[in-house]
């Protein structure tokens, strides 16, 4: 059987979950389409999703259409749950991007479309809500071309839009002007267009399939998900525009490609049972197989497949074998998001969003619930590794990383519903990083005045390449120290660099161990763990560090008359921008803005532009802080203050 894996993406409230329900109804999976308002949708299975009417966790469901098996993943639309979208994008063959015919292109629509284009994921556009008052197909289509991509081909013609009698009929490729669009990316069609040579509808359709599969053109369907208008037309074309995965037949088992799968989702059901969803890119997965698992950190282990399920007609069914191209469900708590089964296929899309830039402390209203809170946050981190939960045992503090306020609210409700405890959050703290500004060296020898430890340690620190994190190397012989001492030094380096000169984690740094020495049998690993922070931070002080803060990449479309006010306010909020681009009576403006001031720009944009401005933002990495460097409160012993460090070390140890 041919198989495709597709996602449904959209800005919140564009109607993607309603479209999913209508698809399940029209393909016979459900007897009737569920309603977001009534809270009986299939993919929004969590109580919190049904109550709020938003998708929080991506959900997978399967259906058949014209002999094609489709695994459909309904993803969150709110920007705070962008990590859920990331996990889904890594395994999709194609996407349906839903756009409202009333609200039009919105901020998250543009962020998603840009990502889909970068990854060359075949994308079908579905303009929803054509039956709603205020629907305007022509106006929204123009906005799609101007703000998303100009290579749009109409698949339908709307009738009586904005009324209860709204409908659609198939568009004629010739009269719909496909040739002008497709000729822009095909030399032969361009020649035929220039020479006024007639092109058949079949030829145009074949070319649209080719360009869509290459991520260069975008078929635009229209309809109403709530009424089922136009959905059948969309379903009938999935197998054309999205590449399918076929089940190849191998006469010999030796010819079967090795297994390659990727864990893109981990869930816990109401009985606290965990299950991992795995997209298979090659080979096959069989019950009772023992498979290799490669973690995100590159560690290898082996897993025995004791239970195996497939997605079939809206349900999970027991299976003995899952073929390449399909999705397997493995119960148990052994697998984590990002794990690779077998080997890493080059078909796994290597794309990731930046980590959440905000840290909050999670506080249980009742102190006796601290242990339960620790348990709940640990388990929730399995489902979303980006939470990066940390528990400070000494201060008994629980901290997590989040994208925004809505995510915090959802977490609070989830913890209350699943674990029975009430929590609140501290004011958010934007997390900065430090990078070395130069080169620094330091060393302390056994017997030196002030060195109280039976150890010799020396370090050289210097800037590393961007995105390298912490790289550690030796300028001494590996055998110059026992391996236990070498291990102690390396672990201490990583732990010490969690707080740099200003208290922020240090990254993009190269650390070289330059001096070692010990006295047998009196030296211990503890001597090296105590001395290494003093030497390392002395070397870092000599190198100096710069503090970088997280920024959002911003894209603005504003009236020309409001450009001056917007640029002035952006500069006041410490943002930066590139040369504005004039587009008719509007102006495009690209730039960055610190996360700490981004909310103010969002809040004020409407008044700055008289309601006509459009703003989209996505994580944009880090930029050096322009003003005085902010300092972070230290949680560890401070080796920058030698006297205090040694005093506290002796008291504690």
Write up what this structure looks like.
With 653 residues, the chain is an alpha+beta fold. It folds into 4 domains: 2-172 and 213-241, Rossmann fold (3-Layer(aba) Sandwich); 253-342, Elongation Factor Tu (Ef-tu), domain 3; 358-430, Alpha-Beta Plaits (2-Layer Sandwich), CATH 3.30.70; 432-653, Ribosomal Protein S5, domain 2 (2-Layer Sandwich). The chain has 17 helices and 34 strands. The strands form 7 sheets. An 8-stranded antiparallel β-sheet has the order 14-13-19-10-11-18-15-16, covered by helices on one side. Helix 13 crosses helix 14. The protein is globular, with a radius of gyration of 28 Å. Mean pLDDT is 87; it is low at 37-58 and 77-81.
What overall geometry do the principal axes of the alpha carbons give?
Answer: globular
Domain module count: 4
Describe the largest sheet: 8 strands, antiparallel
In CATH, the topology of the largest domain is named Ribosomal Protein S5, domain 2
Mean pLDDT across residues = 87
Helix-strand category: alpha+beta
Q: Which segments are poorly predicted (pLDDT under 50) over 5 or more consecutive residues?
A: 37-58, 77-81
The first-to-last residue Cα distance is 65 Å
CATH class of the largest domain: Alpha Beta
> Which architecture of the largest domain does the CATH hierarchy give at level 2?
2-Layer Sandwich
Biggest sheet strand line-up? 14-13-19-10-11-18-15-16
The helical percent reads: 25-40%
Number of helices: 17
* Percent of residues in β-strands: 25-35%
């Amino acid at each position: 059987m041919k198989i495709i894996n597709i996602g449904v993406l959209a800005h919140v409230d564009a109607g993607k979950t309603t479209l999913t329900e209508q698809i399940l109804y029209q393909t016979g999976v459900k007897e009737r389409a569920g309603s977001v308002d009534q809270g009986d949708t299939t993919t929004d299975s969590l109580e919190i999703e049904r109550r709020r009417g938003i998708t929080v966790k991506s959900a997978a469901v399967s259906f058949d259409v014209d002999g094609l098996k489709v695994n459909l993943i309904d993803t969150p639309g709110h920007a705070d749950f962008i990590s859920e979208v990331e996990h889904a994008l890594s395994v999709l063959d194609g996407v349906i991007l839903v756009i409202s015919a009333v609200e039009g292109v919105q901020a998250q629509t543009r962020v998603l479309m840009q990502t889909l284009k970068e990854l060359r994921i075949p994308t079908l556009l579905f303009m929803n809500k054509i039956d709603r008052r205020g629907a305007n197909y022509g106006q929204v289509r123009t906005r799609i071309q101007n703000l998303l991509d100009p290579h749009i081909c109409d698949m339908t013609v709307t009738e009586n839009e904005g009324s209860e009698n709204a409908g659609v009929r198939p568009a004629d490729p010739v009269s719909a002007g496909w040739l002008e669009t497709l000729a822009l990316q095909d030399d032969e069609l361009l020649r035929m267009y220039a020479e006024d040579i007639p092109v058949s509808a079949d030829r145009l359709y074949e070319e649209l399939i080719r360009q869509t599969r290459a991520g260069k053109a975008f078929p635009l369907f229209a309809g109403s998900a709530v009424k089922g208008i136009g959905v059948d037309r969309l379903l009938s074309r999935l197998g054309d525009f999205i590449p399918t995965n076929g089940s190849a037949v191998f006469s010999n088992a030796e010819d079967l490609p090795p297994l390659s799968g990727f864990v893109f989702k981990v869930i816990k059901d109401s009985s606290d049972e965990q299950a991992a969803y795995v997209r298979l890119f090659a080979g096959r997965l069989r019950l009772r197989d023992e498979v290799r698992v490669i973690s995100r950190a590159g560690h290898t282990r082996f897993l025995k497949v004791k239970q195996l399920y497939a997605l079939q007609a809206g349900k999970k069914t027991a299976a003995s074998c899952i073929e390449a191209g399909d999705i397997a469900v493995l119960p148990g708590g052994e697998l984590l998001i990002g794990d690779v089964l077998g080997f890493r296929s080059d078909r796994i899309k290597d794309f990731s969003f930046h980590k959440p830039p905000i840290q909050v402390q999670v506080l249980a209203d009742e102190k006796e619930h601290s242990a339960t809170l620790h348990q709940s946050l640990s388990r929730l981190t399995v489902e979303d590794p980006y939470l990066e939960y940390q528990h400070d045992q000494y201060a008994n503090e629980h901290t997590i990383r989040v994208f925004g306020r809505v995510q915090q609210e959802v977490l609070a409700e989830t913890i209350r519903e699943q674990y029975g405890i009430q929590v609140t959050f501290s004011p958010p703290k934007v997390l900065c990083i430090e990078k070395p500004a130069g080169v620094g060296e330091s060393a302390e020898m056994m017997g030196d005045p002030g060195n109280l430890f039976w150890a010799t340690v020396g370090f050289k620190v210097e800037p590393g390449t961007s995105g390298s994190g912490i790289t550690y190397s030796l300028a001494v012989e590996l055998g110059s120290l026992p391996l236990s001492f070498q291990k102690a030094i390396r672990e201490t380096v990583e732990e010490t660099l969690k707080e740099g000169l200003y208290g922020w984690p240090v990254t993009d740094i190269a650390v070289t161990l330059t001096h070692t020495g010990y006295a047998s049998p009196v030296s211990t690993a503890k001597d090296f763990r105590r001395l290494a922070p003093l030497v390392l931070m002395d070397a870092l002080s000599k190198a100096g560090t710069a503090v970088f803060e997280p920024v959002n990449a911003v894209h603005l479309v504003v009236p020309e008359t409001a450009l001056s006010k917007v640029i002035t306010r952006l500069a006041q909020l410490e943002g930066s921008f590139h040369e504005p681009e004039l587009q008719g009576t509007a102006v495009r403006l690209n730039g960055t803005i610190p996360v700490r001031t981004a909310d103010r720009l969002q809040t004020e944009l409407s008044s700055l532009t008289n309601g006509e401005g459009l703003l989209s933002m996505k994580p944009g990495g880090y930029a050096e802080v322009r003003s005085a460097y902010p300092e972070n409160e230290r949680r560890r012993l401070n080796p920058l203050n030698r006297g205090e460090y040694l005093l506290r070390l002796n008291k504690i140890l």
